[in-house]
Amino acid sequence: MSKKKRFFFHFRKSTGELTLHWNKQCIPIKNVDCKVPLETKWNNQQPRVVLRGFAKSIKIDNNKTALII
To answer: ∠27-32-35 over CA atoms, to 5°?
Structure first.
């Protein structure tokens, strides 16, 4: 059984895209299909708000949609 890892995603205003942070990588994405619970995290500096959770795996298709399981 694979161990769950922390992930988070947020909107990057400078590039106008979503970024997914997973396994020490910052991945630009267009859409999110999240199958796990999320929580909000507020920061005092940018990014102001991120959505985060724990996942066993993340798959990204050709349309840059991230499936979070």
So the answer is: 115
| Cis-peptide, bond into residue 28, ω within 30° of zero | no
Cβ atoms 53, 37 nearer than 8 A: yes
| H or E element, residue 19 | strand 17-22
Give the pair of three-digit tokens for residue 6.
């922390």
Structure tokens at 55: 């996942």
Per-residue pLDDT of the chain (69 residues; tens, 9 = 90+): 579 999 999 999 888 999 999 999 999 999 999 999 999 999 999 899 999 999 999 999 998 999 999
Q: Hey, where are the domains in the chain? A: 5-68
Whole-model pTM: value is 0.88
